[in-house]
Amino acid sequence: MDSSASAKQPYSLLDDLRHKIETAEVPPALKDNTLDMISRLERLSSQGTFSEEYEKISHYISWVAKVPWNKRVERPIDLVAIKDTLDKNHYGMEDVKERILEYMSVLKLRASRNLGVARAPIICLVGLVGTGKTTFAYALSEALGRPISRIPFGGLGSAKDLRGESRLHLEAEPGYIVRALCDAGVKNPIILLDEIDRVTEDARADIMGVLVEILDPSQNNRYLDHFIDYPVDLSEVLFIATANNTGNLATAVTDRLEPIQMPSYSDDEKTHIAEQYLFPKALEAAGMDPALITIDHSLWPNIIRPLGYDAGIRTLNRTIEGIVRKVALLIVTGQAKSIEITPENIKSFLPKW
């Protein structure tokens, strides 16, 4: 590369940055601030510090342009379609479904009267492992037509993970909240705060403080991420939190949540879930024709409790997937053309621990 081309390179890079920020939907004050940064880079272009400063500012502008400041999902609210989608994905859970339908009814009323956006409720699904807390959030995403981003809190060790670090630090990034917003690409997604009771003990107080700000409708319209360093509106986000119990949550956090208890499933409920949801899903995942495998209805209690009681359906799902795999092996290796699982052969298909 000749010297004249090399001399022009910084200005070309700066033009790219300026184009990126000018074409993005960014708040005017923040846009002016980033343009000032680019102007400062122009003054540094003849000095040895240009490259380092360029990397920092380019990284910052890339994130600023990625934040969905104004973009949102604009989907008419169809309560019947939402209920049908929730029923399709989850059996029971009537209290949870009713609460969602109540909130969507309020949104529909406010939209019809041009009253603006209603504050989203912060629902916290509380229950034992495997009772469907996390999967409900994904079903809700499908029902509402909103993208979903998940933030795992299990083992979270610092409030900086949520709020981000100042861009002055090397390799700084936005926090999980802003990254979840960017991943979703809209300002009104569903953000799943998964297992908020499982943060580390040392960081619990600081993390709970950030959660209060995130979940408080009077504060979260101006949420400050330390990296972005400009208020981000979270008021249209539908937060769904999950927890095994609320005993480890700060009182200020629980005051801002609407806990909904996820009950343990009875054997009858598990039978329905297994036959109508889990078994067809396992067959589809394995690419198996449903006509190739038949399970005697009377055998479901054996499949549900191969080793004893389990509050959730996670173990049941693994058991069903194991049965399907064993049948797939028999069919693929030519040992059978189809399989009927009966009281006589059921033990050979159940897990052995």
| First-to-last CA distance | 67 Å
Rounded radius of gyration (Å): 26 Å
**CATH architectural grouping of the largest domain:** 3-Layer(aba) Sandwich
In one word, what is the shape? elongated
By DSSP, the count of extended strands is 9
Order of helices and strands: HHHHHEHEHHEHEEEHEHEHHE
The CATH superfamily of the largest domain appears as P-loop containing nucleotide triphosphate hydrolases
Major sheet attributes: 5 strands, parallel
Provide a count of the helices. Answer: 13
Strand content: 5-15%
Identify the CATH class of the largest domain.
Answer: Alpha Beta
CATH fold-type name of the largest domain:
Rossmann fold
Spans of at least 5 consecutive residues whose pLDDT stays below 50 are: 1-8
- What's the overall average pLDDT, rounded? 85
Could you walk me through the main structural features you see in this protein, from its secondary elements to its overall organization?
This protein folds into three domains: 64 residues; 183 residues, P-loop containing nucleotide triphosphate hydrolases (Rossmann fold), CATH 3.40.50.300; 82 residues, Helicase, Ruva Protein, domain 3. The chain has 13 helices and nine strands. A hairpin with a 6-residue loop joins strand 4 and strand 5. The N terminus is likely disordered. The strands form three sheets. The protein has a five-stranded parallel beta sheet with strand order 2-3-6-1-7, with helices on both faces. The protein is of the alpha/beta class. Helix content is 48%, strand content 10%. It starts with a helix and ends in a 12-residue tail after the last strand.
